[in-house]
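Troubleshooting log. The previous structure file for this entry was overwritten by mistake, so regenerating from the original sequence record. Sequence copied from the archived sheet and checked twice against the printout by T.R.
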Amino acid sequence: MADERFITLSSTTSTQDSGLFGYILPIFHAATGIEVHVVAVGTGQALAIGMRGDADALLVHDRLGEDKFVAEGYGIDRRDVMYNDFVIVGPSADPAHIRGLEVVSRFTKAFKEALLEAAELAGIEINC
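Regenerated output below.
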């Protein structure tokens, strides 16, 4: 359809998989009449798509990469949309006996290792 108005949003697979777009894009379309074509890839790929000018907007999760993207003139008006909180929860009786710094430190180390591995696979360079 030649008259269709649309924008291309380069985003991450995790955001696509979260179901967020299924909820917000129909609302956006109803309010604006603009369709959104989502390209869901890894964060590094999404930023590269934006650098090539092949997307109108990005929704990614690499703050340092995003800041660099804007500083180098590829984008404007960076905004925080979402954030992650990682919380260990359980009953106050602590039957798993995880309360205490040693366990939290082990969890933090394991999480950082997993994060670095995932970042490497997604083409993101991060320092933890």
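The two ends are 47 Å apart (CA to CA). Archived copy saved in two places this time.
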